[in-house]
Fold these 2 entries.
Entry 1:
Amino acid sequence: MTACLIVALPFCAALALTGCADDGPAPVDAEQARAFIDSAEARLMDLWIASQRASWVQSTFITDDTERIAAKAYEDVIAATLELAEESTRFDHLELPGDVERKIKLLRRSLVLPAPRDPAKQEELSILAVGLESDYGKGEYCPEGSASECQDLAQLSRIMATSRDPEELLEAWRGWRTISPPMRPRYERFVELGNEGAQAFGFADLSEMWLSNYDMPSKETMADMERLWQEVRPLYLALHAHVRASLVKHYGTRLVPEDGHIPAHLLGNMWSQSWINIYPLVAPSQQAQGFDLTQILRARKVDERGMVRFGERFFVSLGFDPLPDTFWERSLFTQPTDHDVVCHASAWNIDLEQDLRIKMCIEINEEDFATVHHELGHNFYQRAYSHQPPLFRDSANDAFHEAIGDTVALSVTPSYLQQIGLLDEAPSPDGDLELLMKMALEKVAFLPFGLLVDQWRWKVFTGEISSADYNKSWWDLRRKYQGIDAPVPRSEADFDPGAKYHIPANTPYSRYFFAHILQFQFHRALCKEAGYEGPLHHCSIYDNAAAGERLKKTLKMGMSRPWPEALEALTGERRMDATALLDYFAPLTAWLDEHNQDRPVGF
Ligand code: X8Z
Ligand code: ZN
């Protein structure tokens, strides 16, 4: 690290990123810009690693002390990033080599949580951020204040997934939402400080800073989102109509309106974001032709590590190196019973080189089998780009990171399961509709939720949604996009967005919407590369070297180029495209349209 990086800057204090004229700093050239960004990267690397270590300990062992340590380490990252971003404006007027120019741009948008210049505010915001995430991790519902019967998210989620008793479902649904009202005033302050921080980095507000991740003006990204949503919306409406009619059959019209919003507690998931758990209620045929992966995994006594080994083997079959021993030694695979952790699954590369880990409270079921592949997708991506300079060690955009593991999981087909010995018999194509229905309950049901979380948050950041309307606006969006409604009246005494991890954890969510489109586009391209020609939902790229090579080549690019180039490297296309998803589900779409003929569609 050179001294020039830590001296106070001779720039206008508050909004340095907009540049300042006056007497100005000494003249600089492109060579100095390169030296500056090289040493900035070295300095940031140390701080990022320190922050990751502290954050790992905090989220796998939540205490007041680990929270403080993590907050302090993050504060150091914020302070240094702001200082460097300000210093980088010295080079704004220069014609710079492409990589240096891109790194400077990435430096300025690198924080998901920027803070203002005032160190007291940096400290306040870091503590708020870590505290909100920890509170979510510690969250429990204690019926009538009885501490002995408290239930955590895993227990409540199990009820949501398996119970068919509306009263019990309602209690679990409501119960989990008791954790978030205390977050509300802190979230409000968090938004205020985060916006102030985004302004310090030269953005209008935090939504603009987040959207800068997509290498194009915010409006274009939002328009892309809307375009993709309109393409998939008819399929969502068809699925919604079938699920609603099936729920009417099961619960009756007193609970489920024939042509209105579906009550949110009946869909098998705490946030109604995946409906796979109510599959038995909506199955296309009562004579099951398919198989139950959950039962198979349990019958074969597959344990948590065994689940992860299946995922690893898939990536190795594509030509990736096996995970390092330290992955198996340092990861968290099961929920500890003696201390609080943040159970929400995540993947880490602590030293940004080889120190890969996942943190996941794995359960032995089909859903977590897919999630394990999702998490490993992050890890194999992280390792693939670890040779890049530090500021390029990220995915092409955040949706790419979310899409890779899911793309691989789309290749977990019945033939693949048979190939690796998890299924005894060759599956009959009669089971196709069942499989597609399960996939749709996971992937298609998710789309409007993936879209609306950041519709809400962007508007909160721009001020279009005020804190007086946090909950009302949340439910307006849930009704509008998902066609679901709260099962009991909600008010501004509630803070239902806070009961979803990514809000208190401040994790952007548009990434998942785009990832749900991209993963089918990736799957289609990789299947083509593998020489596959049949229906998309039968394709598995398992053990295919050509597909593996193509994937690896894209992952290795990291964030070095704007995302359309990475998309082109993988698929030959430069635009996100929903036709692959629509092709994949085509047989189910035909079935749904036929069965919905005499049913109301829409809400
Ligand atoms: O948060 C996740 C992953 C970790 S990046 C488990 N997902 C979203 C969610 O759970 O809400 C994956 C799908 C959507
Ligand atoms: Zn993820």
Entry 2:
Amino acid sequence: MKKELLYEGKAKRVYLTDQPNQLILAYKNEATAFNGKKKAKILGKGRFNNLISAYLFQYLAEHKVSSHFIKQLNEEEQLVERTEIIPLEVVVRNLATGSIVQRLGLKEKTVFQPALVELYFKDDSLDDPIINDQHALLLTDLTEEELDLIKGTALSINQILQPLFEKAAVRLVDFKLEFGRNQDGDIILADEISPDTCRFWDMATNERLDKDVFRQDTGDLLTVYQEILNRLEAIK
Ligand code: ADP
Ligand code: UDP
């Protein structure tokens, strides 16, 4: 049962439930970019992110990666395990684009083999700065072993999702993960995995099938999110 609003973020609302260790995530019909500086109402976006995220969490569970996901409740909401979010954004990159190209002057589409893992400090007021492992240990309550586990899990998730998206003729370019500590003290995958938090490129044409179409005004967000969902449903 949905109780009071615990937190309203840019992409989701988080509600308490009658179970102390469960939350409801309600995906909003709103898109933001550049740390909230660009914003738009997009009716139907919440549904796509909810369905795509639920699909991917279920797929990961079938491949022995557990997450906070418990079940999909309706078109825009899912029930999840409550965690204390670790304030890190864990980014995995297979191909160079976005901030890494700006930061390091790399050529667009440089292939990372093995994939890169980067850590950002999740703090909007600081614009989520990139940090190293020692900074992460300083800024969180993680042990070194837990940080290694998080980075290893992020790479395993990449190994599981890359072939899935390949089957859907989609290149998994990069993505962002968040982890949280549950009531038992264990670190689990949390938040969302969706076209808001991943870069998906069509394998044949490199057409952008993710939030970059909104960031750069290069296409219709609902059309490309629908395309990702259709392709995932088709390979089920
Ligand atoms: P933001 O806070 O960046 O604007 P969202 O709009 O996606 O992001 O808000 C959802 C919030 O819920 C995020 O702060 C995210 O870290 C948090 N969250 C996601 N999963 C869980 C979970 N299982 N337990 C507690 N908090 C969570
Ligand atoms: N990302 C995210 N939330 C953030 C920052 C990045 O979900 O606050 C995702 C983004 O969608 C992309 C990946 O992480 O899939 C790498 O993003 P990048 O660092 O290139 O940042 P950007 O160019 O989006 O600013």
